[in-house]
Input
Amino acid sequence: MWTLGLLLATVLVSSCGVGGLSPIFPNPVSPNGQNIYNTYIGISIPAIIIFVGVEIALLWVVVKYRRSTQPATYVPPQIHGNTPLEVAWTIAPLVVVLAIALYSFVELQRDFQPVSASNYTVVVSGHQFGWNYTYPEGFTVHQEGSLQTEVTPFVVPTHRLVRLEFQGTDVIHSWWVPAVSGKTDAVPGYDNFSWLKIDEVGKWRGECAELCGVGHSTMQIIVQSMDEPQYNAWVQQQMAAAKSSP
Output
């Protein structure tokens, strides 16, 4: 029971605090976010069924064969091997693990590769402790980490496939917005890729998911989507601001 209590306490604590992420997945708003969510559910449901089945069998054995119900001289049957049973409980977990591995691998290959159908690439650069978003129009949005205020949003247009190219400038960071995409590492000297396509207007929160130093907890992420006309106006504002900056 103490294990269950500790788990519940961890879930409650993780949902508290400024910028904290809910332990329950938000509603996915991008196709790859939906795919990750489906993968999570597809793995979790069989895992829960197996866990519950094993625990029920364990409790049944503990209750049925408890010492207090047996004679003082009782000695349990001494079974020294059952080849079919041992083969079965070796092969069954292996099949389950291989199925999960294959399912996950196929999903990762689909959602974390450069997409060729997009001609709009945003370079996402992680640093201690914040994110830079360099747009193809030539300007950069700086999303510096903070726990006191809402960070500057990473703005994207709706109904457009946006290619994301991840880079790290110092240590490894991990860009994670659960409603949008899975975790993608920003690694110094190596480019990673992902993508998003959001069809509704809104804001979604995330955070750096890789311990990257003393300011790790401040590396909050906000993704904001805008309709195309509103987004184009925002782009013009950013370009004008970039030209006027020294």
About this structure: Confidence is low (pLDDT under 50) at residues 13-21. Residues 121-244 form a domain with the Immunoglobulin-like fold (CATH 2.60.40.420). Residues 13 and 20 are 9 Å apart (CA to CA).
